[in-house]
Design brief:
Layout lengths: L1 H44 L6 H28 L2 E3 L4 E3 L14 H21 L6 H20 L10 H5 L7 H19 L6 E2 L2 E2 L7 H20 L8 H32 L4 H16 L7 H25 L8 H19 L12 H31 L6 H6 L1 H6 L13
Helix pairs in contact: 1-2, 1-3, 1-7, 2-3, 2-4, 3-4, 3-6, 4-12, 6-11, 6-12, 7-8, 7-9, 8-9, 8-10, 9-10, 9-11, 10-11, 11-12
Family: Belongs to the ammonia transporter channel (TC 1.A.11.2) family.
Keywords: Ammonia transport, Membrane, Transmembrane, Transmembrane helix, Transport
Membrane topology: Multi-pass membrane protein
Length: 426
Amino acid sequence: MIIQEQEAIDKAVEAITGDMGALWITLAAILVFFMQAGFTLLEIGFTRSKNTGNIIMKNVMDLAVGSVMFWAVGYAIMYGSDLVGGGFFRSSPSDQGYFFFSADDWYNLFFQTVFCATAATIVSGAIAGRTKFSTYLIFSAILTTLIYPISGSWYWPFDDDAWLNTAGFVDFAGSSVVHAVGGAAALVAAILVGPRIGKYVDGKAQAIPGHNMAFGALGVFILWLGWFGFNGGSQLAWGGDDTIGATSVIINTNLAAAIGAIGALFFTWARYGKADISMTLNGALAGLVGITAGCGSVNAWGALAIGLLCGIVVVVSIEFIDKKLKIDDPVGAISVHGVCGFLGTVLIGLFALDGGLFYGGSGKLLWVQTYGSLAYIVWAAVASFIVLFILKKTIGLRVSEKEEVEGLDMHEHGVEAYPEHISQDK
């Protein structure tokens, strides 16, 4: 009798714990959903007012198209039970609940959907102000349907069939799986689309200031908030040790963002003689991206080290890409997400409490982290190049010179986001 009662209690506790975990994942997904507003405001603030409506439309459609395509196909490719192409991606028949999703773990679908939309949105800012809206929609659909889900299947199912998981690769919430993939796609897109008119004169980079730093700052604050769901929700459970794990992840996330902003602030202050606002904001985002992979594997000191390094590196990277490589990225997305996504993933090999080189590791983890992150970058770059090159040769990537000069809002959408008397771009 006592044994039966204990079994009943254990089952009840297990059910409650499962429900709490599902609730936590759902709430975290809502926070990540809200990050789309942060990306929108950040991109609007860091670019010209005449393209505000276009940026709004791109971010809305990233979420809308991504939600439908990931539900219909992407989730099956990423989490299906059947391996295809020797484990290159996955699939499952519809009667198992994958294609045109019909299983019952809806909270996992929602959580993974908003992650997928985030990967697509990274590209938007890097090619702002000169890209055809129709072309962007097609690329966003392909990224959320195929490019992101295929590479995501290499690790996040957390089973023996995921080759990077088997190799011992660590990416807790997606510095490489999400951010480096989006950053690599953004790099290729920015190169193929080309710089904005007036960005480079006689081979020298010209500053094209954003029109509303307040929007940019608000966007960063929203992203910072949403990142607690992005990283904390990736614990994928709540209760007991999982509660401790999720909350420690949140603290590591906050510390990395804070020191990233501080690092960028003082580095630019020393370098330019001024406390640079946009670089400080990007420093916070760089810290967030950098710690995303290792937030569950490092202690607070490790989080501070990763955040500080990313906050400084992002400044150097933005300058190098802009002035030396002459690749026009209005919001610094390539550096924040691509460079710092790679750096944060690799730094786990140094700072991880289990296997990190600074904690008695042999260096194996550092090697796995390096080639694992590079695999994501190479895949996203090659796949994006193929898609975008085809689009460039068929329907085109770029708007006309007249459309770019006059603004995408009027030419692509037939409306101005601001009344003419407050626009600064006329």
